[in-house]
Amino acid sequence: MMNLTEKLKILPRQPGVYLMKDKYGEIIYVGKAKVLRNRVRSYFQEARQNNYKTEILKQHIYDFDYIVTDSEVEALILESNLIKRHDPIYNIRLKDDKTYPYIKVTVNEEFPRIFKTRIVKKDGARYFGPFVDVDAVYKTLNILKKLFPIRMCKKNIIDGEFDDRPCLNYHIKKCPGPCIGAVTKKDYQQMVKEVILFLEGKADQLIRELKDRMNHSAEELDFEKAAYYRDSVKAVEKIIQSQKVVTEDMVDRDVVAIAVEDDKACLQVMIIRQGRLMGQEYFMMQGVADEQPGEIISAFIKQYYLDQQILPREILLEEELDEPETIGDWLREVAGRKVVLIVPQRGLKKQFIELARKNAQENLKKERIRETYASDRPLKGVKELQTYLELDKPPIRIEGFDISHIQGIDTVASLVVFENGQPKKDDYRRFKIRIAEGSPDDFASMNEVVGRRYRRLKEENKKLPDLILIDGGKGQLNAAIAILQELEIEDQQIIGLAKREEEVFLPGQSEPILLPRHSEALYLIQRVRDEAHRFAISFHRRLRTKRMTHTLIDEIPGVGPKRRQALLQYFGSLEKIRSATIEELCEVEGISEKTAEGIRSFLLAEFLDN
């Protein structure tokens, strides 16, 4: 393996991405460089001045990889993808991965449809959004479908190729019936055009067209249709009044501001489309300690817009980016047109930034409070559990058990561990139950697994848990208590939790305890029980799948998983392996002549026995 000194010598003078690794081979930082040779070598130069975070990073670098790209923009795209995939601890990382809903109009079809989607494709359809509030999407669609009965089915309708019968929507007047030719393609597309006018924010033009139709229908004495257009005008006017217009220039723009505290940052995004404020959303960034606001916003822009298919014309920024030209080129490539990056200094756009910053500060405070509550909540459950169950000491470490099987087949048990109210997955354990296969005895199974667990802890002189939780009622609890007594483990705090009524059973008490329904104590033991159940079922499913797919080839002496896989890949089935000659078996990678003779002898003997 090439050492670091040798790798540094051969670094190319080209743009690319570098991946720093720790002593375990984990990727801890991903960066991009205009010149890989200069940038990567700088991490190994003592004289270079760095911030505290970079100095800590350098202490953990044991190896690196790099990928050469054709341009800085390509390196930026690759860097963003790798950060998202590997989530390196020393990178500024976007914590939230939200997708926004859009309204899609399939103008690429002869008879277009309109519906909500979160997937934007370059397929010729029209997309409107994004909408921060999904309820707003459904409300808009409901209103549009009342005004314009666009079809809701997914049929591929071709003009002139019609069905014999329409669906129910046609009969209840929720569809004009393009599938049976009840509406012409021209009239249907006119209706779609009006929908697009509305979604483009050109409601004034739509209202004028609806009023012209209303007047024309009245002149033709078609008062029913005139009333329909009159109601449509009122509905559109009501929607316009409810929408907040913030600019008169009708430009699509995003407003991005930041609030930073310690190692977290909150990025606030105001989404303005066609001059109307569609909503606001905030995103939390991690790993921002010692980073400048411009660097944090740059990292956010690269990760936030990575998966966006529709970009605004303008992005208003609170701070200058640390690499505006490269990011600008990348955004142009994504959008297919220029995206203007502006740091406003005065006027209405500056007011947008200030409003977004205030919201970012408030949301950062809310996140801090939420995190504090989330960390305190489990400990509250531990304290409550001690009080409600009158335990001798707080159950800091809880071990929970569950049994899983189907009619006694593949019986397994799980052990999960919670410390300070949080799961400690490294301490989880799985057990195959050794009692007679086919006897669905949960009591005996619980007795066995509890005995195996605590016999071993006692032999190794290890500390017992503060509380044992048994998934089940009196029977399972008594089975566990019996084995603990046999092991001479006294004064062990243990409870059983019956699922039906969430009843808690205690040793020596005939009547169960019901914890307050919304208490943190009940929530904690439910989490332990549910986690034990999930862990047991996953293990049981794995064993059942393995047993059901078990074949004779698994029993061949000297053939492990790798050789077994190689044999199956080469021959395709057990029958072909059985009929293969020794020479043919030797053609498989990893199979020697001696192994091939053993395989052939074993399969031949099994065949003769059967």
Which descriptors apply to this entry?
Nucleotidyltransferase, domain 5; 19 helices; alpha+beta; 6-stranded mixed β-sheet; GIY-YIG endonuclease; 7-stranded mixed β-sheet; globular; 610 residues
Give an overview of the whole structure.
Helix content is 45%, strand content 18%. With 610 residues, the chain is of the alpha+beta class. Strands 13, 14, 15, 16, 17, 18 and 19 form a seven-stranded mixed sheet that branches. It has a six-stranded mixed sheet with strand order 4-10-9-8-11-12. The chain has a three-stranded antiparallel sheet with strand order 2-1-3. Helix 11 links the parallel strand 11 (314-317) and strand 12 (340-342). Helix 4 crosses helix 11 and helix 8 packs antiparallel against helix 9 (223-242). The longest helix has 43 residues, at 347-389. The radius of gyration is 34 Å and the shape is globular. The chain starts with a helix and ends with a helix.
Tell me the strand percentage band.
Answer: 15-25%
Largest sheet: 7 strands, mixed
Q: Which stretches of 5+ consecutive residues score pLDDT under 50?
A: none
Quaternary state, please? Answer: single chain
Proportion in helices: 40-55%
Count of discrete alpha- or pi-helical segments spanning 4 or more residues: 19
Task: Give the CATH topology of the domain at 397-545.
Answer: Nucleotidyltransferase, domain 5
The CATH class of the domain at 397-545 is Alpha Beta
CATH-defined architecture of the domain at 397-545: 2-Layer Sandwich
Which structural class best describes the helix and strand composition? alpha+beta
Please count the beta strands (DSSP E, at least 2 residues each).
19
Mean pLDDT reading? 84
